[in-house]
Specification:
By secondary structure, this protein is α+β, with helices and mostly antiparallel strands. The protein contains eleven helices and 19 strands. The chain has helices at about 30-55, 60, 85-90, 90-100, 185-190, 195-225, 225-250, 300-315, 325-330, 355-370, 425-430, and strands at about 65-75, 80, 110, 125-130, 145-150, 180, 255-265, 265-280, 280-285, 330-335, 385-390, 395, 435-445, 455-465, 470-475, 495, 500, 505-510, 515-520. Strands 2-1-5-4-3-6 form a six-stranded antiparallel β-sheet, sandwiched between helices. Strands 13-14-19-16-17 form a five-stranded antiparallel β-sheet, with helices on one face. A four-stranded mixed β-sheet has the order 7-8-9-10, with helices on one face. Helix 6 (about 195-225) packs across helix 7 (about 225-250) and helix 8 (about 300-315) packs parallel to helix 10.
């Protein structure tokens, strides 16, 4: 059955070569030429990211770098990506698949954010640009360039478009089904969002990034020949598959299980996984997940699959592993349509809210897989904070503790798992927004004890200088990140308004002088405390 049926894990285009197959074109690449091509593709994606960051206007992109870029073959298979945001990159093939079979013309890009048509959650807007070369058949692109960015606001009933209590998609902002991107559409969409000038600028930056990537892919086709490049891209993916199979051999073979929970507004939501490692492949079975609900922790399948792919890559710990659809061929993800991990439109036509599913449920899915494979867990949350009014919005995620490794302590005060953003510099935040950062420090002792300790979380305290609405989407507020091999769990986090502890998902109004305090979770420890020498030699 197809990936859309929720029962297989190969992403769009993963079954074939990113450029259309390996059976045509020149003879096989030698090892040197293969690495040169892989490096060229990665460099193109990095250039796309640089264009996006330097051209955008919002601190969310220019400072936090909450954005991602990638290149795709003609069949929609990912051929390269920059080292940006895991939750973006693993799910972007679904965005390309949503427009792949449309009628394409040079100079016309596509835009979307609909989680049920190739998107993840509404603030993540994706621009996809087809790549054409001279002499290719009319309307037949040789590939696609894509850029996804988290916009600080996309409309909806709360500033920042991240309501803590949403139950339907429409509450969360403007829904953009896949459509051709025109200047008129940019103006129309921006006009329905807060701070429209910033929205226009960020969208134009995404288009510029895609045009840069398209130019680099077209340059490769001109230098090598279109057919030769198509064949070479197939070999790139085959190489990624070989590397992934070799890396999976380092994982413990057999069947592994793990249980965890999400902190829903109405109570805990249990989750479980069965991970099977065999013959150079990993199967992740999440079909036991509960039904999607009237909350915003529902997760589109593409995001669930993205979390599983990230977790497997993290578990094999091969820093040189290629980042393309060749590696995806080795990971099979099983989900149940209509469950919280494979959300679908309801029979009455309403669509479940997903804003926390993309950021928080995805983090828990990654934890499930990592826990099943015996790893100590990181903070397991992005600690999402939005502040704003009708004129301006601010969004950030806050780092915490990473889980310890078998041979090293976990890093402290870092973004973990599905988030890979930077922090928002205090100066940038205070200059562009009416808040004062009262405290920003490491939360000492929050990491779990063990032969190697889990990393510590952070404390970040924001004081409002004007009336503002706030929304906080957090996890690991009641149960800490699990340790491994006898290591202790990390301490749960908390958030509080003027000292009053808030629930994990909370929203309300801040008056001038009030402070919102976020204490992020620590990571789990690894190994029984005192059972051997630590990373520092003690």
């Amino acid at each position: 059955m197809s990936a859309g049926d929720g029962t297989t894990g190969a992403g769009p285009g993963a079954g074939g070569a990113g450029g259309g197959g390996t059976g045509t074109g020149d003879a096989a690449l030698d090892a040197v030429d293969l690495q040169v091509l892989v490096g060229g593709l990665r460099a193109a994606c990095d250039e796309m990211g640089a264009v996006l960051v330097r051209s955008a206007h919002s601190p969310n992109i220019t400072e936090r770098r909450d954005c991602s870029t990638a290149l795709f073959g003609a069949d929609g298979g990912m051929i390269a990506q920059a080292e940006h945001i895991p939750v973006h990159l693993g799910a972007m093939p679904a965005s390309v698949a949503a427009v792949r079979d449309r009628e394409h013309r040079p100079g016309v890009s596509w835009i979307l954010n609909d989680p049920y048509a190739g998107g993840s959650h509404l603030p993540d807007i994706t621009v996809v640009t087809p790549v054409f070369v001279a002499g290719a058949p009319a309307g037949a692109p040789i590939g696609f360039a894509a850029a996804r960015a988290h916009h600080a606001d996309v409309g909806g009933r709360t500033p920042g478009s991240m309501p803590a209590d949403s139950t339907t998609l429409e509450e969360e902002g403007v829904v953009i089904t896949p459509r051709a991107l025109t200047p008129g559409l940019v103006d129309d969409l921006a006009g329905r969002m807060r701070h429209p000038g910033q929205r226009r600028a960020d969208l134009r930056a995404q288009v510029a990034a895609c045009e840069a990537g398209a130019a680099r892919l077209a340059d490769l086709a001109a230098a090598r020949g279109t057919d030769a490049l198509r064949s070479a891209l197939g070999e790139v993916l085959d190489y990624g598959e070989r590397r992934m199979r070799a890396a999976i051999a380092s994982l413990p073979p057999g069947r592994h299980t793990f249980d965890d929970l999400l902190e829903g507004r109405e109570g805990p939501i249990p989750l479980s996984v069965v991970v099977t490692v065999a013959d150079g492949e990993v199967e992740v079975d999440l079909r036991g997940a509960p039904d999607q609900g009237h909350h915003n922790l529902n997760c589109p399948r593409a995001v669930t699959e993205s979390a599983c792919l990230f977790a497997v890559r993290a578990a094999v710990a091969d820093a040189e592993l290629p980042t393309d659809d060749g590696t995806r061929r080795c990971v099979r993800v099983l989900t149940r349509p209509g469950s919280i991990l494979d959300a679908r439109p309801r029979p009455d036509g309403t669509r479940p809210a997903v804003v926390a599913g993309n950021v928080e449920t995805s983090s828990r899915v990654a934890d499930l897989v990592l826990g099943a494979l015996g790893r100590a867990l990181g903070q397991g949350t992005m600690n999402n904070v939005t502040l704003g009014d009708q004129r301006r919005t601010m969004y950030e995620t806050i780092g915490g503790g990473q889980g310890a490794l078998p041979d090293a302590d976990g890093p402290s005060a870092v973004h973990v798992a599905m988030s890979n953003t930077r922090n928002t510099p205090i100066e940038a935040l205070e200059v562009s927004f009416p808040v004062r950062v009262v405290r920003y420090e490491v939360r000492r002792g929050s990491g779990g004890d063990g032969r190697h300790r889990g990393g510590d979380g952070v404390v970040r305290e924001l004081q409002a200088l004007e009336p503002l609405e706030y929304q906080v989407l957090g996890e690991r507020r009641t149960v800490g990140a699990r340790g491994a091999d006898g290591g202790h769990d990390g301490r749960p986090g908390l958030h509080a308004l003027d000292g009053r502890v808030l629930p994990p998902k909370a929203g309300g109004r801040m008056e001038p002088g009030q402070t919102l305090r976020i204490e992020t979770p620590g990571g789990g420890g690894c190994g029984v405390p005192g059972s051997g020498s630590r990373a520092d030699g003690s």
